Amino acid sequence: xxxxxxxxxxxxxxxxxxxxxxxxxxxxxxxxxxxxxxxxxxxxxxxxxxxxxxxxxxxxxxxxxxxxxxxxxxxxxxxxxxxxxxxxxxxxxxxxxxxxxxxxxxxxxxxxxxxxxxxxxxxxxxxxxxxxxxxxxxxxxxxxxxxxxxxxxxxxxxxxxxxxxxxxxxxxxxxxxxxxxxxxxxxxxxxxxxxxxxxxxxxxxxxxxxxxxxxxxxxxxxxxxxxxxxxxxxxxxxxxxxxxx
Amino acid sequence: xxxxxxxxxxxxxxxxxxxxxxxxxxxxxxxxxxxxxxxxxxxxxxxxxxxxxxxxxxxxxxxxxxxxxxxxxxxxxxxxxxxxxxxxxxxxxxxxxxxxxxxxxxxxxxxxxxxxxxxxxxxxxxxxxxxxxxxxxxxxxxxxxxxxxxxxxxxxxxxxxxxxxxxxxxxxxxxxxxxxxxxxxxxxxxxxxxxxxxxxxxxxxxxxxxxxxxxxxxxxxxxxxxxxxxxxxxxxxxxxxxxxxxxxxxxxxxxxxxxxxxxxxxxxxxxxxxxxxxxxxxxxxxxxxxxxxxxxxxxxxxxxxxxxxxxxxxxxxxxxxxxxxxxxxxxxxxxxxxxxxxxxxxxxxxxxxxxxxxxxxxxxxxxxxxxxxxxxxxxxxxxxxxxxxxxxxxxxxxxxxxxxxxxxxxxxxxxxxx
Lengths: 245, 418
Ligand SMILES: Nc1ncnc2c1ncn2[C@@H]1O[C@H](COP(=O)(O)OP(=O)(O)OP(=O)(O)O)[C@@H](O)[C@H]1O
Ligand SMILES: [Mg+2]
What we know:
The structure holds 2 protein chains of 2 kinds.
Chain A lengths: L16 E13 L4 E13 L3 E5 L6 H8 L7 E6 L2 E2 L5 H11 E4 L11 H12 L3 H14 L15 H13 L5 E5 L7 H16 L4 E4 L3 H5 L3 E6 L2 E7 L5
Parallel strand pairs in A: 3-8, 3-9, 6-7, 7-8
Antiparallel strand pairs in A: 1-2, 1-4, 4-5, 9-10
Chain B lengths: L2 H12 L4 H36 L6 E6 L20 H9 L3 E17 L2 E10 L2 H5 L13 H5 L4 E4 L1 H8 L8 E4 L2 E8 L17 E4 H8 L6 E6 L5 H16 L9 E5 H54 L4 H41 L2 H6 L6 H28 L2 H4 L4
Parallel strand pairs in B: 3-7, 4-6
Antiparallel strand pairs in B: 1-8, 1-9, 2-3, 2-5, 2-8, 4-7, 5-6
The structure holds adenosine-5'-triphosphate and magnesium ion (MG).
Adenosine-5'-triphosphate (ATP) binds next to strand 2 and helix 1 of chain A.
C-alpha cells in the first residue's frame, strides 16, 4: 500500500526504537527568567506504535514533541532518533533529519500561504532533491490518498480547515518519514472534520506508521494505543489503552 | 539534482509571492536610481559647460592693460597715465623668453558695419595673427583667421563673430563676401566657430569683427594699443611673466616695477582655477544631495526588505521544519534582492537615460542661453552603475541579515512568530 512506511528497512537502533530519550531536560532562557519546561524525560517509542501525549496546558507537551521532531534541541540528556544521536548536530544536519525522518502536523496547519496545495506538498521533496517525475508521482498519489485530488492546485485560503489539515498531512508524509508527529491536529477543527482527521490517523497507524500526537481530548486519546501523561515537565503516567492489542 | 538548481527553483517559486512589496522595492530602487542619475547628469553637464566656457576667452592667457602710476618714480609724479605702443609687443617677446605668443589689440566701438541693405553698429578689433589662437577664435570650416600677410600687407580682410555674421549675412556663407566697415570694403575671410564664453572684456567675441592691426591703425589713425595679450608655454610661468612685464615695461615707461596700479592684468589661468573650484563646489553639493537621496532610498529599500523578512520569519520556520537547509532559504532571498535591484535599477537607469536625452533634445530646440549655460545633462554610466550597486547592496544587506537570523534559530522558535 502506498500509505505504508518503508518496509523492511531495519532501524539503526536494531531493537526497533524510533524514539529513545534519556534524562532529557529543556530550559527556556528568556533572559530575565529561566523556564524549565522538561525536567528529566525518559521515553521510548517503538516502530508502529500509536501514542498520544496528554496533560494540562503548559505542562511541556509541545516542548517535548518539538524536540522529538528535531524542531528544537534539548538542553541536556540524550536523544536517539531512529538510532541516530541528535545532540550536537548542526542546523543543516538537523534539517536533513527532519526532511528524511520526521513528518510534522501542526494545530494551525502552517501551510505556506502564497503557493498552491500541490506546491506545499512538493516542498519537502524539493528539499530532499527528488527529481521532477518522482515529485509529481508522489504528490499526486498523496493527494489521492487524503482524498483531495480535485483541490491540488488551490491555494490554502481556498480550502476549508479540514482540507488544509489533509494537505498538511500529505506534506508530512511526502518523504516517507519514520515518524509522524502531530501537535493537537484537530484543535482548530470542528467536530466533524476533527473526526475525519482522526480517522485518517487511525488509518495510517493501521498501515504501520509510527505516530505520536498531542491532544487535550481524552476520548480521542483513548482511541490511540498508548497514553503518555505529562505534568510539570515530567511523565506521570504511561499506559496502554483498551485499543492496545 | 544540483543545489544551485534547487535554489533557483525555490527562488522562482518564492518570486510569485509578495507582489505588492516587491513592486514597492522595485519602485524605491528605480526612484533612487532615477533621482541620482538625473542629478549627477546635470552636475556633469554643468561641469563640462563650465570648463568649456572658462576656456572661451583663451586658455592660460594674460591680458595686459596700461593703467596709471600710483607711485612717484625717478622724478615722475604719481597718477601719470600710461599707454602701450604697438612696438611693445615685440619688446616683451624679445625680453621675456617665457612668452611664446603675443598680440597687440586695439578696439573701437560704434562702427557701422553693413552688407547689402543690412546695417549694424558693432565693435571692431584690430589684432595680430597670433590673436586668433590666443583668444580661442577658431574659424568655422571653410574660413580662416587673419594671417601674417594680412598684417604685413595691411589687407582689408575681416574675421567676424558668428552672431554678427548671422545678423548681417543671414543664411548666406559670409566667407568671400564684402563687408563695409564705415563704408570701407573688407573681404570676410572667416567666421568664428560658436563657443561658450564665460569671461569677456568689451563684449562677446561672437559680436565683433576682427581686422589686421596694421589695417586698423591706418583706417582709424590709432597710435596706442588698447591692450596686449600674451601667453606662456606653460601657465605655471604666468606669475613670472607678470612680474617680468612690470620690470620690462617699467624700464621703458619709467614706472616703479613694484607699482601694482601701473599695469592691469587678467590671468585666465587664475580665473579658470576659480571656475574649476566653483564647479567642483557645485558637484560636491549635488553629490551630497544625491547621497542623501540615496540614503533615503536605501532606508526605504532596507525598510521594505526588513518588513518582508519579518513577515516571512514564520514561513522560513515552516520551510526549515520541512527540512530546508539554511542555504535553501537564504539563496532564493539573495537571488530575489538581486533580481529586484537589477529590475529597479534597469527601470531607473532607462528612464533617467531617456529623460537626459529628452532634455538635451529640448535644450537644442529651445535655444535658450540659460539652458545652454547649464550645459547638456550628460549621462554617466559609472554613476548609474554605482547607484544601482549601492542600493542593491543596501537592499541585500537589509534582507540578508534578518533572514540569516531567522535561519540561525531553531524552527520551533521561528514558528512562534506571527
Ligand atoms: N519559546 C519559549 N520560551 C520560553 N518559555 C517557553 C517557550 N515555549 C514554551 N515555554 C514555556 O514552557 C512551558 C511548557 O510549554 P509547552 O508549550 O510545551 O506547553 P504545552 O503542554 O504544549 O501547553 P499547551 O497545552 O497549552 O499547548 C510553559 O511554561 C511555557 O510557558
Ligand atoms: Mg502545546
